[in-house]
Amino acid sequence: xxxxxxxKTATPARPVPPQLxxxxxxxxxxxxxxxxxxxxxxFAQEQLIAQLQRTLPQLGxxxxxxxxxxxxxxxxxxxxxxxxxxxxxxxxxxxxKEGKGWAWIMSILIGVFSLLNLPFGPLxxxxxxxxxxxxxxxxxFGR
Length: 143
Hints:
The protein is mostly helical and 143 residues long. It has a domain of 98 residues. The chain is built from 6 helices and no strands. Helix 3 crosses helix 4 and helix 4 packs antiparallel against helix 5. It is elongated.
């Protein structure tokens, strides 16, 4: 018995606008930054302790004993949150390159939240927002 194969009809590919790099490059910078953060996180325990010891008295908390288990769970929680954000950035960047509508929306959200991330976040956020609202880019996403 012969196998029947279904031929896929090739849909014409939309041309990728050159302005799309205003979105893909900032997302790549965020992705690399988060990757570096993940790699350096295991070495951040002593810095975390020092930062907490400086911050707690300012909050009015005196003589708080920081257990190793509490610090370890804080580092693991931070690791998993940073890993999830890194994966999100990766998939959003891939979606942007493919012209997916959800990736355009996520890029705008990432751009807005990046505006709050000092010192370099505002530059990344502005670049993302600038790129997302270019007419050629909007047309690429079907907006």
